[in-house]
DNA sequence: TCTCTAACTTGACACCGTGTCAATTGACAC
DNA sequence: GTGTCAATTGACACGGTGTCAAGTTAGAGA
């Protein structure tokens, strides 16, 4: 536990993140992760009770490493609702590709596993909070198009910015991350921001 | 094969659709379908080589029963691009809830199965065609906002209207199908239609 | 040095769902 | 009767997760 080399738990998490990254979150088995971490499959279970628990821990671990809060700071410091919305989309759009592997694995596990579903939902609700904050900022500036309630606009923005949509646009449609950020900003602006003339 | 009662194949397809509907596309096993159809699990394999093949057949079967073409006719007959876009969203938005169970099952199978993935992709490309046609109509009316190329607008509309997004809005956000149709129309209009003043 | 403990290893096994195989039944056609 | 075809029953392989028991290894404390 207090040995000189890196804790096994951390080695497992590193291996998990690396493997999921590499295989885009699919087809990575417990045994593969163990091998990558240089330990036996059973040893993984000494640290994580199940695959779902490991995935949840890996997600949390990655969030710390990538420092979500720092990335969202510019958005929170925005001087206007319009700016805040744009900066939020920028931060999120650049974050997705970095977490994609792990997120995808959790997304898949979620379909069959209770714990994974709860963890995913939790993260998505946190993300929704960012959307809500941006919409609220827009609203209190009087710049939210009058057809929308803040609630409804949040629902839509949140849905627009889902990982699945990023996946579709960058995968099926062949967009780059830059294009994604650029056009999602345009989409959000046209959809939610009242034209002032 | 030519007996008086309904062909077993059709009974299986009916049972599949019914079960998937009922369980929202999740946790339905081959044995459950067989039981529902009143035959043995193995008999299902006499008609469909694999679960994926059964799902693909069920999707096709449901499409015939629900008559997609008829539903899309109003959209195709629209007098303007703006109208076409709205009618397309309306047709599609009202179609999704009817196919959701089967679609969801195929969507899940697709993550692990080649054939299911191909079938799903195929259907989604057909759906994309509808999006493209609506955007083209808008474009040739000169009503597509100048920031968008038809291609990019199609990508976005197609992504917006995904089953996953419908799932999120009606599930997590608690929208009704009517609300979905209404607000998606608004979203599409604000996003793609150039304001003429 | 001996011993205790904790982390880890090896190997076997249960569980589940899919898909396969072989032997059998029952009905209808010629 | 004989052939055939759809369906049945029951057994089994496979892959991946998770469990269990027994054995190994290394470090800490007496």
Overview of the molecule:
The structure is a homodimer of 197-residue chains. The first copy, chain A, has 197 residues and is mostly helical. In chain A, 75% of the residues lie in helices and 0% in strands. Chain A is built from ten helices and no strands. In chain A, helix 6 (81-110) runs antiparallel to helix 7 (114-140), helix 6 (81-110) packs across helix 10 (177-192) and helix 7 (114-140) crosses helix 8. The longest helix of chain A is centred in the middle third of the chain and has 30 residues, at 81-110. The N and C termini of chain A lie far apart (65 Å). The model of chain A has no long low-confidence stretch (mean pLDDT 95). The A-B interface holds A 26, 108, 111, 124, 145, 147, 152, 155-156, 158-160, 162, 164-165, 168-169, 172-173, 175, 183, 186-187, 190-191, 195 and B 26, 108, 111, 124, 145, 147, 152, 155-156, 158-160, 162, 164-165, 168-169, 172-173, 175, 183, 186-187, 190-191, 195. The structure holds a DNA duplex (30 and 30 nucleotides).
What is shown here, in short?
Two copies of one chain form a homodimer. With 197 residues, chain A is mainly α. Chain A has ten helices and no strands.
Kindly estimate the percentage of residues of chain A that lie in beta strands according to DSSP.
under 5%
Weakly predicted, low-confidence segments of chain A? none
Percentage of residues assigned to helices of chain A: over 70%
Structural class by secondary-structure content of chain A: mainly alpha
What is the molecular shape of chain A? elongated
Number of helices of chain A: 10
Q: Averaging pLDDT over every residue of chain A, what do you get?
A: 95
Query: H/E series of chain A, N to C?
Result: HHHHHHHHHH
């Amino acid at each position: 536990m207090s040995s000189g080399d890196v804790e096994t738990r951390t080695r497992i998490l590193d291996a998990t993140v690396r493997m999921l990254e590499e295989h885009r979150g699919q087809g990575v088995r417990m045994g593969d992760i163990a091998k990558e971490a240089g330990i036996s499959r059973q040893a993984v279970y000494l640290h994580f009770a199940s695959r779902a628990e490991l995935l949840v821990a890996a997600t949390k671990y990655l969030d710390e490493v990538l420092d979500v809060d720092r990335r969202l700071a510019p958005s929170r410091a925005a001087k206007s609702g319009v700016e805040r919305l744009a900066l939020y989309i920028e931060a999120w759009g650049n974050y997705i590709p970095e977490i994609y592997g792990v997120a995808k694995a959790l997304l898949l596990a979620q379909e069959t596993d209770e714990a994974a579903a709860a963890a995913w939902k939790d993260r998505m609700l946190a993300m929704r909070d960012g959307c809500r904050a941006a919409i609220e900022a827009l609203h209190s500036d009087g710049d939210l198009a009058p057809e929308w309630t803040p609630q409804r606009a949040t629902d839509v923005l949140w849905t627009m910015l889902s990982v699945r949509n990023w996946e579709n646009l960058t995968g099926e449609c062949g967009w780059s991350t830059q294009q994604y950020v650029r056009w999602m900003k345009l989409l959000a602006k046209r959809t939610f921001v009242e034209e002032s003339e």
